[in-house]
């Protein structure tokens, strides 16, 4: 999908794909005003009629369960600053979808040390989303 610095109009503003039982909406997020607003993101999610909305622009990891749907912002793998904040921690996510269950693994550089914290967020069409921190040893960043 098109980001705020993409000059070409060849890419769509948003795209909807289906994986397993989930309809997933993709949108960079600069079109959502105010940026990162849960209410504005929920309106986009309803307009796209998707179970999971993957969005960004703020460069900060966030995950929300709202109205039996799921919204995720993977953050910024580089930790690049934005006009919103220069305090951005590098993060990225991996999403594992199996039928009606999605598990998102969140990798985030911890403050002060070159270590990566790994969290796990689960979402099921049948149940509520929940976030539980893994009790694993932090992985050293390279």
Automatic annotation (TrEMBL):
InterPro entries: Calcineurin-like_PHP_lpxH, Metallo-depent_PP-like, Phosphodiesterase_MJ0936/Vps29. Residues 1-99 form the Calcineurin-like phosphoesterase domain. It comes from the Eukaryota. SUPFAM superfamilies: Metallo-dependent phosphatases. Pfam families: Metallophos_2. PANTHER family: VACUOLAR SORTING PROTEIN VPS29. Belongs to the VPS29 family. This is Vacuolar protein sorting-associated protein 29. It comes from Tetraselmis chuii.
